[in-house]
Amino acid sequence: MSNEREHGDPPRRGFFLKFCAGLVGGIVGLFPVITAGGFLLGPILKKSDDGDADSGDGFMPLDIKADALPLDGPPQQVTVVADRVDAWNFYPQERVGSVWLRRTADGIVAFNTICPHLGCSVDYRTSHEDFYCPCHLSNFSLDGERQNMIPPRSMDSLETKIVDDRVWVKFENYRGGIEEKVPV
């Protein structure tokens, strides 16, 4: 037996120890590979969950009650806040835009505050009772209709609904500079 060890034949016990060490090393080595793979593929495999940020049909709640808007009164600018998710990050209750709201006999009317011409912010002028874009000195009537031919279309109207006296809006941004109302 001592003669076998001198010629380099490994004993069975040495083989078993090397096999166990290789097995444990392989398992330990796979852990970071699996973790990195899960991290990189997570956004692709993750199912979308909108949570409470909207009602599932694209409507988002606004921080205003319908009764707070006077009938045929001046429009009020309201910030649209929603949970935003990108590939790896979750941003709770982040500002995603704003809308002009006005209550009429037909219900709540909402317009995106972004000008359909160059993407500037549209203001409300109480002195003229109209919407005004300071970027190109253009104005819109209270029903969102353009008052000159500078902007390619009227203000972008948005769908609204009232749930438990709270105003909900289907907020969306649209491509500027074109006649068609194309979502971005």
Written account of the structure:
With 184 residues, the chain is α+β, with helices and mostly antiparallel strands. It folds into 2 domains: 2-45; 60-169, Rieske Iron-sulfur Protein, CATH 2.102.10.10. Helix content is 21%, strand content 31%. The strands form 3 sheets. Strands 2-3-4-8 form a 4-stranded antiparallel β-sheet, with no helix packed on it. It has a 3-stranded antiparallel β-sheet with strand order 1-10-9, with no helix packed on it. A 3-stranded antiparallel β-sheet has the order 5-6-7, with no helix packed on it. It starts with a helix and ends in a 15-residue tail after the last strand. The mean pLDDT is 87.
Notable characteristics:
alpha+beta, Rieske Iron-sulfur Protein, 2 domains, four-stranded antiparallel β-sheet, three-stranded antiparallel β-sheet, 2 helices, 10 strands
Helix/strand structural class: alpha+beta
> Uncertain segments of ≥5 residues (pLDDT<50)?
none
The CATH superfamily of the largest domain is Rieske [2Fe-2S] iron-sulphur domain
- Level-1 CATH class name of the largest domain: Mainly Beta
% residues in beta strands: 25-35%
Q: Strand-and-helix sequence, N→C?
A: HHEEEEEEEEEE
What share of the residues lie within helices? 10-25%
Overall geometry: elongated
Give me the Rg, rounded: 31 Å
> Largest sheet at a glance?
4 strands, antiparallel
- Order of strands side by side in the largest beta sheet? 2-3-4-8
The count of DSSP E runs of length 2 or more, i.e. the number of strands, is: 10
Architecture per CATH nomenclature, i.e. the level-2 architecture of the largest domain: 3-layer Sandwich
